[in-house]
Amino acid sequence: MLAGLAAAVLAATTAWAQDGWISETGSPHAFPIAGAEILYASDDHPVVGLAAGDLRDDLGAMLGKPPRLSTETSPKSRTAIIVGTLGRNPLIDGLVRDGRLQVGDLPGAWESFVIAVVDRPAPGLDRALVIAGSDRRGTAFGAYELSRAAGVSPWTWWADVKPQKKKALYVAADARRFGPPSVRYRGIFINDEDWGLQPWAAKTFDPAYGDIGPKTYEKVFQLLLRLKANTLWPAMHEVSKPFNADPANAALADRWGIVMGSSHAEPMLRNNVGEWKAGAEAFNYAANPGGVLDYWRERAKSNGRYESIYTLGMRGIHDSGMVGGGDIDGQRALLEKIITDQRGLIGRYVDPKVETVPQVFTAYKEVLDIYRSGLKVPDDVTLVWPDDNFGYIRQLPNEQERRRPGGSGVYYHLSYLGAPLSHLWLSTTPPALVIEEMGRAFDLDARKLWVVNVGDIKPAELGTQLFLDMAWDVEGVRKLGAHGYEEAFARETFGPQQAKAIAAILAQHHQLNFERKPEHLQWFWGKGATPRSSPLSVAQGDERLARFDALIGKLDVEAAKIPAEQRDAWFELVDYPVRAAALANRRFFDAEAFDRLIGERPDEARVRAARARSTDAEIAALTRRFNEEIAGGKWRGIMSEEPADGSWTSFRQRPFEAPAVDATTPRLAPSPAEGEGLVVVEAETASGQGWRRIDGLGRGGAAMAAGDVREPSKTGAALDYDVTLPAGAWALDVDLLPTFPLNGQTALRLAVGVDGGAPVTIVAPRKVGDKAWAQGVTDGRLRVGSGATVCGGKRAVRVTSVDPGVVLDALVFRPAGACKP
Ligand code: REL
Questions:
Q1: Which end of the chain is more exposed for a tag (fewer CB within 10 A), N or C?
Q2: Which ligand 1 atom lies nearest to the CA of residue 386?
């Protein structure tokens, strides 16, 4: 990526990687920011002026005095920060022409920029720091990168992270080159905004508009640029006014250089729930092709002038299957016709060279089945692979798909409303899972578009930043690993002193909530399940609570040290999610202990019931604090105490029901004690090669991934375990992460052999929607029997890889009666 650059130009690491190219203390050739004027060209793209303005404000917040900002050709200062796009900024173009600014292969590069110091760049100027972008976003990213590396978090507005105060700021004199990004289109999907973003925008942030409108979207666009993202799928639920119902939104996106798309269910930039007025039955391309095509035509016509990504294909009005077409073969034929006709509109109203217009086909839910049945998607269209809504990518491109010029992408979830259970509240997907899954997608060339469902944005900040940092620089994040990334996030946000301790809190928080998400504590999925019937005994539940208590102890220690100006940010980014998840567990397990113990130990049971009730009140108070007190009331309405509260359905969180204090008989069996008597051997305790250790994933703190997804034929790598088992017979199970086979195969395979015996192949069927899948995503593990039974004593177990990408969390030995050798 650095071909053609002068040797003096360094490949730069991004701000979160902290390589210290900006410092508070000067060095002989460093460029001092203080006193420099920010210059940009009036003819540059509008986003350049917007980013330059934000840079002025950011530097002002750090240094105490904002620099002068101007488009004048004769600066008033002796030094300047020149921000501009190649071909749009005469000063920068002149420096390049004269060989004074080395930009190498920057011209024509995608979203890239160079930051360099130039002496005497123009009459009257002694020195300048030049931020030269290859295109409009490249330049804007350069300005935001300078802010971020100097000490302004991308979350400065969205999570109230105060810019670090600096006595001075110096930029190292070496030229630095950033970009191109690992992934071409990178962005977020605002979804399920009903319980946070929409009420907050409507009532608190923009009551005059009364909805998520230009004022809110402008903040979202700015956030995206600060995170070096470029794409938005806007809010699309019934509660929100459709994005394009107000033309000001798309015009504003264009000013900010943001590429607009629409969700998997909304072809051609429409928002069906708000815009299709003819009823769900008429949204049928078999029965009403003219009506539907006109509807799409209207948007292609009105928005064809903007930079957009067109979603192709068709689903139902909202998150449901397409109406019309009949059986799967009929639907496939209909979809192919739809795609052809949609491309006809793109050719007519957007660009006659249709293949140059970004288009995506997102194979979400039932659409993946139609795709798998043989759907033909034009080669220049990007195939967007979905996860299963819980963070596990369902399929990735095979060799043939990887050769398509349109390439591939991923639609991923950090938040989800749907079956078997939603997770809308605290966004606890572990960073290690995001790194593993998105890394695997990148390795298999899914690099055209990454979009992540971030729910209401808050409190999904860490996951969002991780996803987008990876999309910008995948290897940089992978080098750090989950724990390194958590520490980098903590350091960037709260400074170096507490970074390690905060990272340890985040790691523990993710591990505990991966075992069971705070939104899934009811252990309920599917019809007929009893609420509050966890498979844990009271003692096991208490052991889990003790781990949460220890975590809260550490949280309190760090909370006390957070400087006053960062307390809002601390609450929003760390304290609320960690504490609320811990409290949700306490409330649940105390209530369950009451239901189990009331017959046997009534006094203790009543104490537990009282504690469940007071914990419920604590959650309410904590959430009230978020909404009413934090940042002076800025976030009123943003946080729901229960996800989707008030309207429970089979896949929404069941609201907490206080234990019935007058009960005298247990409602639940005293002690189900699933899992007792097992011998669990953590996967990462093995010797052997050819598997990869993933820290931060699985129950024991790490897991082992089989093989290399890029080289699927290389299998057979072995992990060896020396296990000592008590007397008796033991059935051997394996715990896998509920990942998917790479290319749509129906099962995951690995092999196990004991004491040198012939290996047995374990086959774990993987089908979204079945019971094993639902159990797997809510438990964060897939327990699969091997069929092997061994006798107690010293045993040598060998696990051999068969399918690449299988992730082993543990070997589990289950008592199986007396040993019959
Ligand atoms: O997460 C998804 O992609 C879908 O579930 C959404 O499209 C849908 O709006 C969902 O929130 C349910 O209403």
A1: C
A2: 3
